[in-house]
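Box 3.1. Reading complex inputs
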Amino acid sequence: MADAAIFDVAVIGGGVVGAAVARGLLGAGLSACILDEGDIAHRASRGNFALVWVQSKGLGMARYGAWTRASSDAWAAFAADLEAETGIDVAHRRPGGFNLCLSEQELETRRGALVRMHNQPGWIPYDWEVLDRAALAREFPDLGPEVVGGLFCPLDGHVNSLRLFRALHASFKAGGGAYRPEWPVTRIAPLSAGGFRIETPRGVVEAGKVVLAAGIANARLAPMVGLAAPVRPQRGQILVTEKAAPFLHYPIVTLRQTDEGSVMMGDSAEEAGLDERIGLGVLSVMAERAVRMFPRIAALNVVRTWAALRVMSQDGFPIYDQSEAAPGAFIATCHSGVTLAAAHGRLLAPMIARGALDADLAPFSARRFDVPQTA
Amino acid sequence: MRRLTDVGALREAYDLVIVGAGPAGMAAAVEAAGQDRAVLVLDENPGPGGQIYRAIGTAPLRDPRVLGAAYWEGAALADAFAAAEVDYLPGATVWHLDDALEIGVSAGARSAVLPARRVILATGALERPMPLRGWTLPGVMSVGAGQALLKAQGIAPTGRVVLAGCGPLLWLYAAQCIAAGAAPSLILETTPRANWRGALRHLPAFLATPYARKGLALMARVRRHLRVVPHVAALAIDAEDGALRVTWAEGTAFTADHVLLHQGVVPTLNLARAAGCAIAWDEGNACFAPVTDAWGTASLPGIAVAGDGAGIAGAEAAALRGRLTALEALRALGVLDEAGRDARAAPHRAALARWSRGRAFLDALYRPAPHFCAAPPDAMACRCEEVTGAALRDAARMGATGPNQLKAFLRCGMGPCQGRMCGPTITETIAQERGIHPREVGYMRLRTPAKPITLGEFAALRKTEADRRAVERR
Amino acid sequence: MFRRLPEPPARRIGFSLDGVAVQGAEGDTVAAALLALGRTACRETAVSGAPRGPYCMMGVCFDCLVVIDGLGNRQGCLVPLREGMVVETQHGRRDAAR
């Protein structure tokens, strides 16, 4: 076997999380490689819904609300940078987003959750509002008669997530990064002199730092460097229609029209292990709710459905950590890689490059799961 | 046969559902009928026949010499199908199949999901894409399209007509057009000269078949009527003054009104793949095909694939393979024991062996040149999402090592055709770019819906409380 | 150009194509009727707006998409032609209302 290639940092995982962090590390002046699995893999990045979403994030951890907000605020510049570097427009839009409710009970449940979230200690306030049916009808001329009301937050937006994925990789490559697909990591060994030796069936890499951004696989990799990643797969299903002329000018948490014209629906959550099969019944519920919100879309043809696995921690919040046992080993894992891409590239990556996570990321440490529940 | 007009007329469940009413599907239905088991045939076309026997009962060209004896031989099978005790729903799109043998079918913008105890996929073949520069231009179509027009409507292209590519269908269509008094102008034959080396050892077996003589006579007839340029190694089509300029060598071009392309056929994989059936590279036919055993049974219990959908072998073999899958279904459904199944299968197996002779010669001779299977940079590889060969190659160099990652990079294969027009091209283009065999590249994942259905149809499907909880949890 | 071969010709079927009264023949699909009328292009694509016409005539390629009786993106090669049908060119992306 040839001598190991040597990098300042090796990022394990080439999805949106890994690529965003890796690109940020290049930007901080480090030499970087991404070690990735191949064509067949559990890839949350291929199944995401492409929202850059703020309004419902943070109940239970005020810091997550602020982190999400910071990413959302950084997104426009992040997208502009990507386009300048790669020529790829990731179609970031931030017109504000809605959550539409089909019953008074739904509306009350969701409104109550947002009230509780915004009343948390340490919460940094931002605008949101409850809209009645009449107010919604002014924004959505095609609104179905069963929509009783909804929530709006001006910070919400969306992107074209496949173009984001390609732009991150194109930028990483253009910046001199080494992308190594089909290099699935089998072993990470801290070296006595510092740094890490990373083994794959295709070859070995040595790096001063290592970042675990491998989604579900982080659960397997983290213990190799003294970290913990108690994450599990949670299945989400998506329906997507043929391309239609633009009619939906805001993203809705369960329903959006892409810049290319497709209508996407998806907000299911199932505990199904690694089973990535779709289920017609769940898809039907999503389709039915979408049609009740906008009856005109019933005639659109569905061209694709799929299921993908979200990377869920026990409390649903991200995990960011540096290993105490093996300093230089970092982990980044979350289920909202698109929303958080700007934070990962512009905020998290520089911290990793400096060698220390900022103190205000401490709430995201996996050590939070070690603390016995008190209340 | 009980002809149904909409999904409302379907029973709640069937013992055997056959998808496709071409030779394999019709023969399977005939074999399985009359055994006190509920059999359903679903087919997308308005009438039985599939592609090979398209419009067999309604073809307007009644002169048997035009479409030829091999076409009209389908009438006997169609008659037997019409007499068989089965339910038959034409105009039906099967859009879902899963490992629980639940079948989603749409007709007249209404869908039903019904369970089956056994499923036979007889969805046949489609033409291997031939991604050239300009193959998306209006006026360019496949030879199969031309033949469908000839069979079903009696319509032939006129003016300056070029046929380009390789394979028996190309020659057959040329002969049919000549017989109809609408001879094409030119054939650009792309069979590589080197193919003869691989084909020669199969030649004696081929010459011993009854269709060798017919085939050679047909080719001679075609050559008498029009110019044939052999061993064409490059092709491109450009729009020029309302016509199509076909270029095949430096400085050599022909201005045409129509260009019809063909380079063989490959199995339709969509339903088998959406259900999760394993596929494997078929070196003889240079394509992926579902993995099946001697009874056509796929890797998932209860699902069989019959006919060209399980690997290309032609219409007569397709019908025999349809009968074999039906006999195995009857065994599984408790109608036949193994001995009874084997006894009824014996003559079909013998006939299948006869029809398989000589096939290796055709496969080897008409194996398409790899450079016509991979998309050149200036050709559209994915017609739906308009992704060029250049974009595929760029993404492959950027690290998309397989077709599923390429989708994420480029959306190729994510349009309404569900990868039917680009799947083989994407695999071949990555293989060429990476310098590896297409087998190692693999094939794109195919999903439900196998063909598009409306959102309204999805919305109307059956749901459980658990399904609702998975969505309405908050 | 295409030519209808059968003699005697099949019964004619009247329909409307982009607002003009035209004729097809019994046994036609919508796509076949358009080709017989000399219309090799029936749509503009949703991505680039390029003109396209029927390619496979067997329900596979989705290039024969047209608007039929107000419903967009229908596969013309799978829809039998009916008397009085209203057929229109599919201009790019479909309108969600039709």
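In summary: Residues 62-86 of chain A form the longest helix (25 residues).
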